[in-house]
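REVIEWER CHECKLIST
Item 1: Sequence provided? yes
Item 2: Single chain? yes
Item 3: Sequence as submitted:
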Amino acid sequence: MPRLSDTEDAGDVLIAGGGLAGLFTALKLAPLRVTVLAAAAIGKGASSAWAQGGIAAAVHEGDRAEDHAADTIAAGAGLVDEAIAHLLAREAPARIADLLQLGVPFDRDLEGKLAVGLEAAHGRARIVHVRGDMAGKAIMEALIAAVRAAPSIRIIEHAEAYELIADGARITGLHALVDGRPVTFRAPATVLATGGAGALYAVTTNPAESRGQGLAIAARAGALIADPEFVQFHPTAIDAEKDPAPLVTEALRGAGAKLVDASGARFVDELLPRDQVARAIAARTQKGEKIFLDAREAVGTRFPHAFPTVYANCMKLGIDPVRQPIPVAPAAHYHMGGVATDENGRASLEGLWACGEVASTGAHGANRLASNSLLEAVVFGARVAADIMGASLPPVSAAAPAPQLTDAQMLDADALLALRRAMSAYVGVVREAAGLARALEEIEKLRGKAGPQSRFENPAIAAHLMARAALAREESRGGHYRSDFPEARPECAQRTFLTLQGDAAPLIKGQTG
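Item 4: Structure as written out by the authors:
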């Protein structure tokens, strides 16, 4: 690719993020000219490619979108936007059809129909997979091939967005580091599809690029943020010295694998919602116990073919899941919070859209239903594209080049490690007021040392918003569990909305700043 200038025309639409949401949106925007900024090599730094569970959709005979929506609402612990949940479920079959048309080889039964599996908190089998646990990888491979072949799409790899730019009240692009060099990208429409915030935790299933960048840059620009306290901890990551921790798909529990302690005794219903299973495991591991997922009887010799990704990850770590139980522990997996958007992915700032994990549509509430994440990415990616194509986009004027970052302002590995440890220790599976206050103190101390123009500022701001909202929500609900407030409070049964600039606590009824 030719060397980029200091200021680049990104075409009609600029998309920050090279995962499923970003690439699907780019394809749906054709024939508009689109520039996609990928933080790593395309497909490498995105959680989408690692997704094992599959995509939830009412595509099987006897299933209904209304039932899928009802399960989504039930899992969300009272905070799901019901209209959004119904929209998500209703549009799911059409998005599965889009992916099939792109060549995604979803599993089929003996009659040639889409095969569906069961996962936790679903009332019926409705998860479409690829070779058991390879859905994310297969979907991303199909999308990458399509995007590379699309003449309307330009891909720029190793491009980390770090600041939005505006012309008055309208977002008109962003500054990014491309191979370490600051570059300004200008476009009439900007889409954030930067992924989640799991890598802000010391134990996570997410790639290193998932540090809450999009959430932070939107917040710094004044965007409304929703539900940042709600983090889903996957109950079953492989408990080994590996960062990120390899995921053990929920589909294994759906297939009958059992969670057991060191004596081989079961201690929890494996198909409860993820937050409940994660807390049950965490209660044991915090006492120093080892917990295992035993698939020897349920899967056995079928393991290498039925769940090839998990099998390969286990074998790399010296664990043979055909003959041995898999040691597991909870890990930060999915962020239900993010940039607040409407049903078309519009953020609160003019000219800015968001989709995928960086966005908070209200579809997940306090707890995401299994395999709704990839679905949300494609459903709202398509809606973002349709909204932009139907909008009147004004031309953008020239902008000053991106601010130069000195070596001293590069991301400090020691500061990031300290931040991740603080988040795991105090803003993890179980939280309480003193720990959350300690987390905020440590975050602000680290921010002060790094300086406001450093690359550490964005992950620190994302962590700040998550901890601040968790401290304000004095109840337990979904993925947010307070040991000092262990019960849900009816008066708190509403979503959190806040801005970085505001000095008020999240807008929870009955509380004050």
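Item 5: Key structural point noted by reviewer: The two ends are 50 Å apart (CA to CA).
Item 6: Recommendation: ____
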